[in-house]
Design brief:
Blueprint lengths: L3 H22 L26 H14 L2 E6 L2 E6 L2 H10 L13 H4 L13 H15 L1 H4 L3 H19 L9 H18 L1 E3 L1 H18 L9 H7 L1 H31 L11 E4 L4 H7 L13 H32 L1 H18 L6 H4 L3 H13 L15 E3 L2 E3 L4 E4 L1 H5 L48 H18 E5 L10 E3 L3 E3 L5 E5 L4
Parallel strand pairs: 2-7
Antiparallel strand pairs: 1-2, 3-4, 5-6, 8-11, 9-10
Helix pairs in contact: 7-8, 8-9, 8-13, 9-11, 11-13, 13-16, 13-18, 14-18
């Protein structure tokens, strides 16, 4: 401690000098309004709580200061946007200017040498990664190649839910856990081209979640990274260990697909992972074919780069989709008339196809199903904020200056509850998206205008939009086809309580009585 005090005093003086210089540099600019700033700490005292309390605090500050809000986290300026028109101006009309990502700490200091779609700066590498995902995974023709995995995961999920309803089912997990495992297992199959045994899927999920949870410990590195990366070097080493653990799980699966491409069949030690089925196409297959641009020598991806992209693939689609699925099913339990109307559309569709389930082709012909999913995403967007943006140059927005490199975010939930855009926004009403409703023709991509943006908008809109909406429509339809979802006796489903985790989830996880509908 005796050695630490001089260092801390020197750090304090350095911070004060930095803030003074920074405030002088921007004195001639009209920055967005915000609460009073405490020297060194900025507005950190406003956010001494966590989770939903932080989101609610930001909403209250917007109500006080307006649609553009400036906050300081230490020396770093952050701006949030709550107005949908300003969001459209920033993300769509001036999309290229707001398409970058903030770099909160030099990647070399963190020991990172691999980019992914979400983390790459706006430029050739990002375009390459995104174009590959959109054309080779999210394109409808490619999505059809994963149909066997979707059908198998659906069968496993319905069997698991049926067992949960049976005698002694209370120890077989919860509905949301079943949803999370199903979505993660499906994405593992799509990523690596193989459906793995349940134990292998759970091991990968545990390693992935452990890494994601621990990454929250690196937030302190945003506060003067040149210093904090040395003060907290142990956290960086711990992250490296967790990344290596995940890499050790991924690489046998990646090597198996490489062998399959070369020799036509996979050869792998049976003790590492046991597969139950192989798919003709996978995300890893596309990564093995990528060659970087000429300035990178036209080389193939490194192992670390492929691991980063695979990890992103699994992270981005699991919690978001399973969270949205839970909210939608909860609303269907809460609103049995809406569930009955949806089931009527399902029965009518099955009557025309002669199948005993709803296929991927069927969901495209079911307007009420689409309306239910859209209303679920509007009323309960899985993320109340998007991934961070940063302007590439100084940018004027709403009469204020946003300096280059400023961290910018957008209040997704506030926009989808805007009373000027929606009638009775707190009500779950899928009919609003049908002809004559106030949401008719809503563009979920936000290209024409932003009324809701659960997947973001503009250049950095989530490239998995088509994948997520297909999965939601497919699973919602077939779960309603299989079961009648009712409230447990004496237990009211709470569709208003919220809790912030990786996504905004139900504060009281969904519990429902599932009554098998039988064979139609």
């Amino acid at each position: 401690m005796e050695l630490a005090w001089p260092f801390l005093v020197a750090l304090l003086f350095f911070l004060l000098a930095f803030l003074h210089a920074n405030s002088g540099r921007h004195a001639h600019r009209r920055l967005p309004p915000g609460p009073a700033v405490v020297p060194v700490l900025g507005n950190l005292l406003w956010f001494r709580h966590q989770g939903m309390d932080v989101l609610r605090a930001v909403s209250r500050l917007h109500a006080r200061h307006g649609p553009l809000l400036a906050l300081r986290m230490g020396s770093r300026l952050q701006v949030t946007v709550s107005d949908r028109r300003l969001a459209h101006l920033a993300l769509v009309e001036r999309g290229a200017a707001m398409a970058d990502r903030p770099e909160f700490a030099p990647r070399e200091l963190l020991g990172l040498d691999a980019h992914a779609i979400t983390t790459s700066s706006y430029g050739p590498l990002w375009r390459l990664f995104r174009r590959n995902f959109v054309s080779e995974v999210a394109h409808p023709a490619r999505l059809r190649l994963f149909a066997p995995a979707r059908a198998a995961v659906l069968a496993e999920l319905t069997n698991k839910l049926r067992l949960m309803e049976g005698e002694g089912g209370g120890d077989r997990g919860t509905i949301v856990e079943a949803f999370q495992h199903a979505m993660f297992g499906l994405l593992v199959a799509m990523c690596f081209g193989e459906r793995l045994e349940e134990r292998a899927v759970r091991d990968i999920a545990a390693a992935q979640r452990d890494l994601l949870l621990y990454s929250g410990n690196l937030g302190v590195l945003a506060f003067l990274p040149a210093i904090t990366t040395r003060l907290f070097s142990g956290r960086i080493r711990a992250m490296a260990t967790k990344r290596q653990r995940l890499k050790d799980m991924y690489m046998p699966l990646i090597h198996a697909r490489r062998e399959r491409k070369i020799h036509g069949s996979a050869r792998r030690d049976s003790q590492t992972m046991t597969t139950t089925a192989a798919l003709p196409h996978s995300y890893v297959d596309t990564l093995l074919d990528i060659r970087l641009n000429d300035d990178e020598g036209g080389r193939a991806l490194t192992d670390d780069e492929m691991v980063a992209l695979c990890s992103e693939f699994l992270n981005a689609g699991t919690d978001t989709t399973s969270t949205a699925l839970q909210w939608i099913m909860a609303e269907l339990v809460k609103n049995p008339d809406i569930q009955d109307k949806l089931h009527g559309e399902i029965e009518a569709t099955i009557a025309t196809t002669g199948l005993d389930h709803i296929s991927e082709e069927d969901v495209h012909k079911m307007p009420y199903l689409k309306a239910v999913v859209l209303e679920g995403l509007r009323r309960h967007p899985p993320g109340y904020l998007v991934l961070l943006h940063a302007p590439a140059e100084d940018m004027e927005l709403g009469g204020y200056m946003i300096p280059k490199g400023t961290t910018v975010n957008f209040m997704v939930a506030d926009m989808s509850m805007d009373e000027q855009a929606w009638e009775r926004p707190t009500q779950f009403a899928p009919e609003r998206f049908l002809p004559g409703g106030d949401g008719e023709g809503t563009d979920i991509t936000g290209t024409r205008e932003i009324r809701m943006m659960p997947f973001g908008a503009g250049r950095r809109i989530c490239p998995g939009l088509n994948v997520a909406t297909l999965h939601l429509e497919y699973f919602v339809a077939n779960l309603v086809r299989e079961f009648e979802w009712r409230e447990q006796e004496g237990e009211e489903v709470d569709v208003d309580g919220e809790k912030a985790e990786f996504t905004v989830v139900m504060a009281n996880p969904l519990r429902a009585r599932l009554v098998p509908r039988g064979i139609v």
